[in-house]
Amino acid sequence: MKTYETVIGLEVHVELATKTKIFCGCSTAFGGAPNTHTCPVCTGMPGSLPVLNKQVVEYALKAGVAANCKIHRYCKFDRKNYFYPDNPQNYQISQLYLPICYEGSVEIETSAGKRKVRIHEMHMEEDAGKLIHDEWEDCSLVDYNRSGVPLIEIVSEPDMRSAEEVIAYLEKLRFMMQYLGISDCKLQEGSMRADVNLSVREAGTKELGTRTEMKNLNSFKAIARAIEGERERQIELLEEGKPVIQETRRWDDNKEYSYAMRSKEDAKDYRYFPDPDIPPVHISDEWIRRIREEQPQLREEKMDWYQKKLGLSSYDAGILTESRHLAELFEEVSALYGDPKKTANWFMGEVLRLVKDKGMEPEEVRFTPSHMAELLRMVDKKEVSPQNARKVFEEIFQKDINPVLYIEENGLKIIEDVKILTDTLQKVLEENPGPLEELLSGKEKVFGFFVGQMMRELKGKASPEAVRKALAEEIAKRKSETVPMD
Ligand code: ADP
Ligand code: MG
Ligand code: ZN
């Protein structure tokens, strides 16, 4: 068999996190009773007129600037005509001739190193409504709440060669949008949707093969499986001497096979023409300059900074920046406390563990940074034991309590009283004569057992170091007392 190369280009739809829709004042909130976030504009009533939401242009510019795009200073909207029940105007307002952003690129990181994926364009458009097929009642219902929600469609050049690269590219876009604060990009909720265009060609050849477009991919796993499945299907056709037909296919992730949906339509099928209801938008240099100046630190820059300036490992830097919100919280605690590495350890250990245990999103974590910094300082000053500090932190995490007051009120302050320590030690040794004998005869493993017993007895309110020291001294003393005489 010949060797084949896979060629992939992506069309990614990203729902923008504006409060209101692109051409009317209706809410973009997800959910809501069907058809409650609607008005004459977004239900396509005759005579209604769209008014462009400036925030959509602002967000599209942010995305374009971050992806190194050129900007069309004079940008227009076009009508893409097609009939479908979820599209009440019978056309979608989109951009064909002068998309707001064009000719950009992003860098992706794969196991084989860095690669560049060129962006052909990013354009603004409105989302369609949602059809709900009710099999029980044998009818279809339509909900226009999503109709008119703003989207940017990001069209890549056919620069990707594997599922790994596709996923790296999608991750890249997702982090970019999240850090810019313009979309949450959730594949599962549909705020990020990817159509995969795929063709194969004999390795070494230059010409592109005929492509198919796959829709209905709502997880990274499904995307990876769809790419593998479609690649195999196309290679099989070519090996049998049959042509690949340019068409839109629907990936069925359960059956792991794609099905032809419709033959691929061309731009001419849509009879695009400039939308006469929306005046062109002029984008000033001043506007673009402001966007550039206001651009927040993106994930790669943060990761770089964490490693070079804060001394964290690349692994920790990667995990801590997976959510911009958590990264910023980490930075605030670290700045207040002064030790980035120790702060990072607590975030990697305690914060992320609690996020997982409570089934939360990292974005939902809320506590006062100084509360955590204060607790870490108390651990350093040995005012609270590490074990109890973890319990106190859980209270901070859940109720944002003040650790100083909480430790005071709950009697968790470390016992520094030497008498209590030695009394407890005597008691524990007395209660466990067997293990004591083992320890005295040199079985070092039993040491940990006694430390545990002590900590339990003292309810964790002792520093483990102090306990270990007291125990070691006591054992040494007893050993010297029992040294056999010659
Ligand atoms: P259309 O206008 O029909 O949607 P485009 O030329 O805009 O087609 O391309 C859509 C997407 O398909 C782009 O992401 C592009 O990179 C990708 N693409 C185009 N040709 C190929 C091909 N032969 N193989 C793989 N991907 C392709
Ligand atoms: Mg297209
Ligand atoms: Zn509306």
TrEMBL record:
Name of the featured protein: Aspartyl/glutamyl-tRNA(Asn/Gln) amidotransferase subunit B
Gene source species: Candidatus Blautia faecigallinarum
Assembly: Heterotrimer of A, B and C subunits.
UniProt record similarity statement: Belongs to the GatB/GatE family. GatB subfamily.
The protein's Enzyme Commission number: 6.3.5.-
UniProt-listed SMART domains: GatB_Yqey
GO terms of molecular function: ATP binding; glutaminyl-tRNA synthase (glutamine-hydrolyzing) activity
Alphabetical keyword list: ATP-binding, Ligase, Nucleotide-binding, Protein biosynthesis
Function: Allows the formation of correctly charged Asn-tRNA(Asn) or Gln-tRNA(Gln) through the transamidation of misacylated Asp-tRNA(Asn) or Glu-tRNA(Gln) in organisms which lack either or both of asparaginyl-tRNA or glutaminyl-tRNA synthetases. The reaction takes place in the presence of glutamine and ATP through an activated phospho-Asp-tRNA(Asn) or phospho-Glu-tRNA(Gln).
Domain Asn/Gln amidotransferase per the UniProt entry, residue ranges: 328-475
Gene Ontology BP terms: glutaminyl-tRNAGln biosynthesis via transamidation; translation
Organism placement in taxonomy: Bacteria, Bacillati, Bacillota, Clostridia, Lachnospirales
Highest taxon, organism lineage: Bacteria
One Pfam family here: GatB_Yqey
Top-level class of the enzyme under EC nomenclature: ligase
